[in-house]
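Hey, quick one: can you model this chain's 3D structure?
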Amino acid sequence: RAMLQFVGGSAGAVIAVVVLASLNLAGPGVHRSHLLTVPKDDLFSRLGRVSALVASVYASVSLVAAILLAGLGASPLVAIETAIAAATTSAHLSGAIGFSGAASAIGPLIIGFVLLIGATNVAYHADIVRSGPRVYMRDTEGAALLLGVALLAGGLSVLSGAFDIGFFVEALSFMSTSGMPVTNGDGVMDVLPQPAPELLAFVGGSALSTAGGLKIARVFVLMSRAQIEFRRLAFANALAPLTYRGRARDDGVVMGVWVYLMAYIGATVALMLALTLTGVPFDAAMRGSVGAISNTGPLIDPALATDTIATRWTQVVLSIGFVLGRVEVLALMPLFAVDFWRR
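Sure thing. Here's the predicted structure for all 343 residues.
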């Protein structure tokens, strides 16, 4: 099962790098990178190289983390599957790791670091050998993710009435769309009321990562456009070009993001309605639909725990949502276009 998680996470990143970057389905090119972009008319020529590169990044991180976790007292099997789950931002398979003593503080930090690697842009990880650690200074999505983790951990501390360093790791676990329990304390779903956890999973992590969700890059584009509109309220004829990743973009960029956002919301609502038709209560259906399309495992538990005669249909609906979320909804549409395969 851990190897299936590894294949799924790596393949999802490869699809984003090779297919989505070439087709530029997201409008602003949120999947494009200086290292891994391939031309549209040569879509699959570098598939093997990109697959090997992405898999080597996540395999190396998982191996190092597994060795460290085993050194802290985890069994080799649990250490390996925990490291893979973190690198692919997947659900934890074997429950609590059971660290004790000083290892109870170090272990979650190791898992949190691997979760951060999985939730941020793989192009920067692959380029670290050539450019060194300073390559991460260009990753605005990663900086936004860390800021969100800090704010969420602060909110969890306020709501729970006590400060706990474990809240930072738990916040990172949920914002990376993993949701795996990292510490023995309260998690995001234990402290935050519905629908706050769903909103975090809905946004998700960085583009070109194993994390699910809408992606932080698209949120940046929408926020930039909103800022321009606010400026024009005061200065109607002001020149305020939309910029993304240091370059000016046209309105087609925003249109592409809006189309994706509407498709993402529409798919989520459709999944939620389908779950209610299988007998799942509305609140559990809401969590289940967001959890499925963002690939956040703990959110689907309420839907699966519902004792109804249509449980098998519930699983079918959730499975469809998993696939839609992993290939980012719009990626399936070109597969049904004849012109795409002719080219």
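One thing worth noting: The chain has a mean pLDDT of 80.
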